[in-house]
Specification:
By secondary structure, the chain is of the alpha+beta class. The chain has 2 domains: 7-124, Bifunctional nuclease domain (Roll), CATH 3.10.690.10; 130-165. It has 6 helices and 7 strands; from the N terminus they run ββααβββαβαβαα. It has helices at 26-37, 46-53, 87-97, 105-111, 131-143, 147-164; strands at 7-12, 18-24, 58-66, 69-76, 82-85, 101-103, 113-114. The chain has a 4-stranded mixed beta sheet. α1 (26-37) packs parallel to α3 and α5 runs antiparallel to α6. The mean pLDDT is 90.
């Protein structure tokens, strides 16, 4: 939804029963695929090198959604230092450094969908889409005469516009 140069990141719970999903841009998609498909070829790349230089243990927590983006914090194990990072960067960091990526339980319950490995499509929560993709999705819903969805998308766009004023 919103372009051919986008991918969807889907994360499941440990039992692979529930999942959350988010849109990922083309450049991050390439970075993630490179690490998944050919991890050995990445050992001297900048993210891997920086991870090697870090001392200590780290973990990441998805704690909210704001303006169409999951909010993630990267913290050291003592929670003395933390920094907010993009969701897709957290996924990449989890792949590279094997840092655990957690999600706040009530957020998971609110955002999740049942996970089906054989599903033909993927649901993207409206609140994790940016405004341009919401507009594209709304126009598509109108074109397909799915006015209920178009109305929900319009409401989400208006809600965000009202919160930024």
């Amino acid at each position: 939804m919103g372009g051919e140069n986008l991918a969807v990141i889907m994360l499941t719970d440990e039992k692979r029963q529930r999942a959350i999903s988010s849109i990922c841009d083309e450049s991050m998609t390439r970075q993630i695929l490179l690490r998944v498909q050919s991890p050995g070829s990445c050992k001297n790349m900048l993210p891997e090198t920086l991870v090697e230089m870090l001392k200590g243990q780290y973990e990441m927590m998805i704690y909210g959604v704001h303006d169409g983006q999951y909010q993630v914090v990267l913290s050291d194990s003592e929670f003395e230092r933390s920094v907010r990072i993009r969701f897709s960067d957290a996924v990449l960091l989890s792949i590279i450094a094997h840092y655990p990526l957690y999600i706040e339980e009530t957020l998971m319950k609110r955002q999740c969908i049942p996970f089906d490995e054989k599903a033909k499509g993927i649901a993207i929560p409206i609140n994790t889409m940016d405004i341009p993709r919401l507009n594209i999705a709304m126009q598509k819903a109108i074109d397909e005469e799915n006015y209920e969805l178009a109305s929900k998308l319009r409401d989400e766009i208006n809600n965000r516009a009202n919160h930024t004023k």
